[in-house]
Amino acid sequence: MNWLTNFVRPKIKRLVQPREVPDNLWLQCPACSEMVFHRELQKNLKVCPHCDHHLRVSAKERLAILFDNQKWTEIELPSVQVDPLKFRDRKKYTDRLKESQAKTGLKDAAVVAHGTMGGLNVVVAAFEFSFLGGSMGAAVGEAIVAAAELAVLQEAPLIVVPSSGGARMQEGILSLMQMARTTVAVDRVREKNLPYVVLLTDPTTGGVTASFAMLGDVQVAEPGAIIGFAGARVIEQTIRETLPEGFQRAEYLKEHGMVDMVVHRQDLRDTLVQLLSLLLHRDPAAPVVALDDPSRKQKRPRRRIDAKQLTSPPPDPSVPDAGLFDPDSNGDGSDKA
Amino acid sequence: MHFLEFEKPIAEIEGKIAELRHMSDGDGINIAEEVSRLQGKVNKDLRSTYAKLTPWQKTQVARHPERPHCLDYISALITDFLPLAGDRNYSEDAAVIGGLGRFQGRSVMVIGQEKGHNTESRLKHNFGMARPEGYRKARRLMELADRFSLPVLTLVDTAGAYPGVGAEERGQAEAIARCIETCLNLRVPIISMIIGEGGSGGAIALATGNVVLMLEHSIYSVISPEGCASILWRDGDQAKTAAEALKLTAQDLDRLGIIDGIITEPVGGAHRNHQEVFSKVRDIIANHLQDLLSVEGGQLRARRREKYLAIGRLSET
Ligand SMILES: [Zn+2]
């Protein structure tokens, strides 16, 4: 039940490329099944206005949500060896890469940018789930390493936003090694006493969770995000038991001591700015709200971002949505059995 | 208002005042004089009663349900509070509150035990009795504070660490031990305040500070008077006697050199005037913090360690 299979007008899905999806499109929320106008969804930071379900956002949309005035500088990432194992499953890995590159306009599954958040200089590494399920190979590993190095160089906090099925099987053992590489990278940031914050988004699983994504000074998660090591289906098949309600959801993780807070996407930027300001002994960032107003949290209107600023393509129809994410798949879903 | 047993005579007069006020609403009789006479008597009685509270009475006051609790202090003294959660191992433990915030504009880490104020919140916070996860969370937050040079404020109010099978299995003792060890190793100032009940290991885990302060009618003890009575007297009803013997009042502990200061409470106890308590506590923390911030981190650590080594040691003269 991939979230665009419920599309009202299936013909359009076939006819147009994601980039050209017209603005007047209606989408069905995968959580509550209500129909949502595409433009309204974009304006609402891709949170369902009916049930608050947080849909996935692309890496670029994520940067737009986080940085001041939706402005940032993306850095060029170091090149890595492409397809070191000459891997081929049902398709050649190089072909899968090319498809994902064409689909997303990205070189690989992570982008690194710097800019300001509440006036503070911050480095952000964001994952693109629609690029091979956000899986971590050498290029993604290099992105995390580069982001960490940039943070140290700029003496800036590092925020990493994973959305990933885990290690990229097509790169074999080299992808496994990214777990160690990224751990060194983020530890260097921590050793400089710079804040390292992880924003866990849907889904964060496998080798990504089991390395840099669980090592933040502060762990923030988006509501409903699937966060875990093994996939729910694998666990269920192994233990032959039904898993508890809400298993591996962000809220469940919080109850079990793994994350500090679960924050609504509308409050995300402000909360992160508050967090970084406190850790760095900075004055509260503008817009300043009276400090002694205890009702601040309740009264604060949810932040809206101009929809026009979110210029990336609408959700990719070939990407399976939360809860149905198959950790065994490569995430591009293009030729699932 | 919840009245304690020994407050009965005062409660009666206060009842009379309320009655008079109620009557005057109807027929306009001038009762101002009588009310003010009775109010004077209440104040006088409160003052004299609270000036000579027995250790057992203080135990009751320290546990008074309307006494300001950890979260009350946080909302009164800390702005921009951002709660943090979890031990990164097993669970979040709501008995321990922890988070970042600003004290008079300065970034700090606040950690404390919360008892709750009604059935629902008491259950949520497990009556302020932390499990191993609570202490592991506290430790994690203290280490975070250390890394970012944030002074640590702790607010201690617990009957003790939670006694339970699960808590034992998951290493309650180890968790407390590591928490004390972490307190001792920090290179940032720690100011600890016993705001109500300082119950045993569950309390010292958060109260091994550079400065340890107690509210005038709070208690701090190796065991609850009830627990002590049932073990040593083999009679739980001897709690009153045990309370005397344990020397658990702020005044006793000050005399023994265990604490660094007493914060005076409003007449009739902290529960009668929260705002007055908050403003006193604010001033005292501000003073201590200013002193401690001028001390280099290594020195803060060394002094804290020396302070605890020196406790109870016979002075060489
Ligand atoms: Zn919905």
Question: What's this model, at a glance?
Answer:
The complex is a heterodimer of chains A (about 325) and B (about 325). In chain A, about 30% of the residues lie in helices and about 10% in strands. Chain A has helices at about 10-15, 40-45, 60-65, 95-105, 140-155, 170-190, 205-210, 230-240, 250-255, 265-280, 295-300, and strands spanning about 25-30, 35, 75, 110-115, 120-125, 160, 195-200, 220, 260.
Quaternary structure: heterodimer
* Helix content, binned percent of chain B: 40-55%
Shape of chain A: globular
Count the beta strands of chain B.
Answer: 8
Outline the biggest β-sheet of chain B.
8 strands, mixed
Bound molecules: zinc ion
Count of helical segments of chain B?
A: 14
What letter string, H or E per element, gives the SSE order of chain A?
A: HEEHHEHEEHEHEHEHHEHH
> What is the name of the CATH superfamily of the largest domain in chain B?
2-enoyl-CoA Hydratase, Chain A, domain 1
Q: State the order of secondary-structure elements of chain B, H for helix, E for strand.
A: HHHHEEEHHEHHEHEEHHHEHH
Strand proportion of chain B: 15-25%
- Please give the domain count of chain A: 2
Span from first to last CA of chain A?
Answer: 14 Å
Which regions of chain A have little confidence, pLDDT < 50, spanning 5+ residues?
Answer: 1-20, 286-337
Helical content class of chain A: 25-40%
Tell me the name of the CATH homologous superfamily of the largest domain in chain A.
2-enoyl-CoA Hydratase, Chain A, domain 1
Specify Rg of chain B, calculated over alpha carbons. Answer: 21 Å
CATH-assigned fold name of the largest domain in chain A: 2-enoyl-CoA Hydratase, Chain A, domain 1
